[in-house]
Backbone:
């Protein structure tokens, strides 16, 4: 007797991450783009509104941005950062809550959001690298290569410019190497720039500039926490040493605040260490399946913009979602825009800079490009996506 054939049993198909599970930044009420407009509105600068309702006005405001020092990193290192840890409860107007960086959580995008008070879909720096629709080339928006006219790329005034025009004493205190960079020009210009090499010099001068006006808006910046994190990881002694140093810098500045002043300590993104194995580092340059139909790979390891060959957009989206959808939120351009990843609107000039496919990491994994991005692919610490460790940044507050 012939037995009836049994139905084949197939393993379950992988289920892609639902896009509505991505923790979209708090644009409009609690993102980096909302900080300076809130402070400037409190100084009476016309045309700006208080967006972070927990903050109360001060006559003199200083923002100290520490590159790469996310909320989760401070909480995880109380011994190395005792002063910063003691301020965690002051964050976001005493609520003890962080801000969100914005997407992607990367320096060029975040600094543009801070300085312009606009989300990425409006200021137009939607990632570490993005395609220029006018030329078809990838543009590195941190190093500004290849050269692109800055005011064409980002035409909106900065909050510093608006404050300066309104009679507020406005200053930036940072490394001299940043004074003439295009990113500074389009994101952080307005008032006066003061270049100082050491962290201690920057803290002292920031305090002086804060006291120089009855109404003041001062910005200062420190980058080496991020640098050590990329090179050695946030689990390294070198990174911990930088955290200890910057903890002392914050206290030095706080102890010099003039009367009627508020100091806000924040960051542009957090960071996560990624293991050096094939499961954690997916190499686009060695993966024929991910490369199929792709003309350009932009963004960075944890927040990729994927630009398809004309006509291949839907196929590329399907493949990336099938291959990576359990580890990444994988969206088509219009899906990412509709989900609010880049803010509540995307300007027409910015639309084509966003990838046909946008992939944001959920797991502890990156998409490297070992041939075309050898330096970035060798980094230990990474960032860019919407996970809490990358996305949440402090807004620690001290008042005199």
Residues:
């Amino acid at each position: 007797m012939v037995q009836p054939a049994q139905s084949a049993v197939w393993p379950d198909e992988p289920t892609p991450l639902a896009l509505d599970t991505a923790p979209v930044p708090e644009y409009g009420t609690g993102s980096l783009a909302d900080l300076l407009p809130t402070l400037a509105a409190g100084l009476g600068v016309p045309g700006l509104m208080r967006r972070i309702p927990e903050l109360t006005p001060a006559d003199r405001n200083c923002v100290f941005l520490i590159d790469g020092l996310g909320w989760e990193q401070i909480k995880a290192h109380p011994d190395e950062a005792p002063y910063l840890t003691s301020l965690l409860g002051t964050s976001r107007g005493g609520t003890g809550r962080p801000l969100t960086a914005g997407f992607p959580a990367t320096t060029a995008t975040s600094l543009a959001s801070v300085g312009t008070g606009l989300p990425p879909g409006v200021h137009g720096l939607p990632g570490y690298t993005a395609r220029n629709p006018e030329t078809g080339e990838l543009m590195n928006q941190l190093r500004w290569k290849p050269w692109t006219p800055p005011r064409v790329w980002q035409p909106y005034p900065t909050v510093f410019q608006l404050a300066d025009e309104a009679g507020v004493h406005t200053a930036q205190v940072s490394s001299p190497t940043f004074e003439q960079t295009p990113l500074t020009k389009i994101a952080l210009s307005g008032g006066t720039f003061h270049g100082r090499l050491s962290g201690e010099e920057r803290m002292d001068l920031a305090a002086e500039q804060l006291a120089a006006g009855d109404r003041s808006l001062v910005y200062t910046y420190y980058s080496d926490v991020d640098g050590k994190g990329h090179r050695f990881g946030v689990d390294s002694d070198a990174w911990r040493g930088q955290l200890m140093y910057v903890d002392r810098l914050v206290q030095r500045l706080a102890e010099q605040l003039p009367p009627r002043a508020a100091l806000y300590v924040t960051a542009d993104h957090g960071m996560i260490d990624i293991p050096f194995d094939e499961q954690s580092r997916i190499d686009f340059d060695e993966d024929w399946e991910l490369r199929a139909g792709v003309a350009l790979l932009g963004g960075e390891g944890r927040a990729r913009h994927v630009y398809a060959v004309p006509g291949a957009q839907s196929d590329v989206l399907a493949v990336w979602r099938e291959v990576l959808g359990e580890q990444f939120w994988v969206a088509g351009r219009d899906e990412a825009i509709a989900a609010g990843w880049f803010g509540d609107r995307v300007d027409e000039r910015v639309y084509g800079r966003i990838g046909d496919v946008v992939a944001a990491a959920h797991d502890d994994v990156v998409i490297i490009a070992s041939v075309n991005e050898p330096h970035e692919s060798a980094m230990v610490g990474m960032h860019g996506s919407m996970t809490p460790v990358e996305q949440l940044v402090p807004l620690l507050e001290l008042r005199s």
The mean pLDDT is 96. Residues 203 and 349 are 38 Å apart (CA to CA). The two ends are 92 Å apart (CA to CA). Residues 237-254 form the longest helix (18 residues).
